[in-house]
Design a protein that fits this description.
Length: 338
């Protein structure tokens, strides 16, 4: 029998919310699916779970920890004041509270969030990444030695924010236009990287020191015309109508030979450790026609809804959803922070 725990699930509020807010109606909506799935799984596991939505007041965490006295915090926070740039700051705060929490620590989150820094670290260690260039906000720059076509995206956004069909640029004029757009709209630096023609592969990993790699997923582009770039735009990930129109489907990666799978798994474990990730993460790769895997980005604390890639991969490996949630809690309890 597993020990029954007091678990405080913390996540983003969309507006200032009192500490004891009843969010059961919100939990029934699609936007809150992850939170609802995690709460239901914890209940099924026999744990006592309470939740806290944080919008713009971090002191609520301290107050709730004092009153509820949780054994562990289940961290689903992705932003603060609607700004996704602050997720690692919230985790820094959790590290200072001294209560165990799930998912990745602040260093791993910081390194993974900056697409330029993560690629520099991995490139230094011989891991393949597309050739890239970071263009700081306020600087005008051409593509330099980069070869077209090029993908231009915000250096720090996640979940494909800021990636659209216009991110795929094929000449100097489009390049400069898109850089200016990213600088202006996202008020931050841009990263430009050579487009790798190939398959979009997602590798889910769980663990702190001992790592488990789950079966790989792939975003398949089934109805896309041959001249269209196969890129995981924001719409490709989140817009159901768009996905249907172009036959975009998340599926398990097929036709990969055992040697290649082993090689990709080893590379992804190396990436996980080099970027100091702990807890769980999804690594996004492009696999070209020569079966060379290029690192695109790492996503610590990826979406955890039961129907998302991470949980699907765990399920394929024989880990039912509540068992996955239990494993994430266990890893959070075991890691020494600070």
């Amino acid at each position: 029998m597993k020990k029954r725990l007091k678990v405080l699930v913390i996540f983003d509020g969309v507006q200032p919310t009192p500490i004891d807010a009843d969010l059961s109606e919100e939990m029934k909506t699609e936007e809150w699916q992850t939170e609802a799935n995690v709460m239901a799984a914890l209940k099924e596991l026999g744990h006592t779970a309470e939740h806290l939505a944080i919008y713009d007041d971090v002191d609520l965490v301290r107050q709730k920890v004092e009153s509820f006295q949780p054994d562990v915090l289940f961290n689903l926070v992705e932003q603060f004041k609607n700004n996704p740039g602050f997720d690692q700051n919230i985790v820094s705060l959790l590290e200072m509270q001294g209560v165990p929490f799930t998912g990745c620590g602040s260093t791993g989150l910081t390194l993974c969030k900056h697409k330029g820094i993560s690629k520099k670290i991995l490139g230094h260690h011989g891991i393949l990444t597309p050739n890239f260039l970071v263009i700081p906000r306020g600087q005008r720059s051409g593509p330099g030695k980069l070869k077209f076509p090029i993908l231009v995206k915000p250096v720090k956004e996640e979940a494909s924010y800021g990636i659209s069909r216009n991110s795929f640029v094929q000449n100097d004029e489009q390049f400069r236009e898109r850089i200016a757009f990213i600088h202006e709209k996202y008020k931050g630096d841009a990263i430009a990287e050579e487009y790798i023609e190939g398959r979009e592969i997602y590798v889910s990993i769980i663990g702190n020191t001992r790592l488990t790699v789950f079966p790989m997923r792939e975003l398949a582009f089934k109805e896309l015309p041959p001249n269209e770039p196969r890129i995981a735009t924001y719409k490709a990930k989140w817009d159901e109508k768009y996905r249907k129109r172009w036959g975009l489907e998340g599926q398990f990666a097929e036709n990969l030979d055992a040697g290649l799978i082993k090689e990709i798994e080893k590379t992804c474990k190396d990436i996980y450790r080099l970027l100091t990730i702990d807890g769980y993460a999804r690594i996004d790769l492009r696999l070209n026609a020569d079966n060379k895997a290029y690192f695109i980005e790492a996503n610590p604390n990826p979406h955890l809804a039961a129907d998302e890639d991470f949980a699907q991969s765990a399920s394929k490996a024989g880990l039912k959803y509540p068992e996955l949630i239990q494993a994430i809690v266990g890893l959070g309890m075991r890691i020494a922070r600070g």
